[in-house]
Design a protein that fits this description.
This protein is α+β, with helices and mostly antiparallel strands. The chain has one helix spanning about 1-20; strands at about 30-40, 50-55, 90, 95.
Length: about 100
């Protein structure tokens, strides 16, 4: 009897470990008050973007905010490569330091 119980318990523990080691799905909270204000609205002209949004839960210190433009939208303009030094970020009016990635 003890062997049978031990066998079931061992199988249960193995299945539990496998299930809990699988990736978990995480959903982000929806953003509110979204806006993208462009300094110029003319096609094929350089423009500054002021992107504003509100998160209902805030952004953790180690978290990332990714802005994805639609397919066909050229963020590099006339061949100038856009990098993190071209971007200014402010949180409640205070500048935030960006890291390269």
């Amino acid at each position: 009897m003890f062997r049978k119980t031990r066998s079931y318990l061992t199988k249960f523990l193995i299945v539990s470990l496998v299930i809990f080691s699988l990736p978990q799905v995480t959903n982000a909270a929806s953003l509110t008050a979204l806006s993208d204000t462009m300094s110029r609205l003319k096609d094929s002209q350089a423009s500054n973007h002021t992107i504003r949004f509100t998160t209902p839960t805030g952004v953790a210190g180690a978290a990332q905010v990714v802005v994805t433009f639609p397919t066909g939208f050229d963020v590099n303009g006339t061949g100038n490569n856009l990098d993190y030094t071209d971007i200014d970020v402010a949180d409640d009016g205070v500048d935030v330091t960006l890291a390269a990635s």
